[in-house]
Amino acid sequence: MKIPCRFQLMGQTIEVVYDASLNDVDDNVGQTRYRRNQIVLQSHVEGVFRPRSKIEETFLHELIHWIFYMLGEKK
User: Fold this and answer.
1) pLDDT digits (tens, 9 = 90+) for 4-63
2) How many whole angstroms from its chain centre is CA 25?
3) Element of type H or E holding 25
4) How many CB atoms lie within 10 A of CB 22?
5) Strands (DSSP E) found in the chain
6) At residue 11, what are phi and psi to the nearest 5 degrees?
């Protein structure tokens, strides 16, 4: 699967960015930043091995958060 750099969702442009320190800072492998229109993914870096399949899985997980957010779902 090819993870896009940015994509359109319900009229919003969502940017996908990689942050090598995400796991170190927040102990996360992905984040949805609604105010910044971003999905942030922990990249594969030395000491934090992230197989491509897990990065893709995290992207899809964060995308679902975005979809529910755009639909007004809180849970």
Assistant:
1) 999 999 999 999 999 888 876 667 899 999 999 999 999 877 777 888 999 999 999 999
2) 15
3) helix 22-26
4) 20
5) 6-9, 12-18, 30-33, 38-41
6) 85, 0
d(CA 3, CA 1): 6
Residue appearing with tokens 């030395």: 46
Location of structure tokens 């992207």? 59
The whole-number pLDDT of residue 23 equals 76
The full length of the chain comes to: 75
Closest CA to 73 of 28, 16, 43, 34: 34
> Is 19 within 8 Å of 42 (Cβ atoms)?
yes
**Which H helix or E strand runs over 56?**
helix 52-70
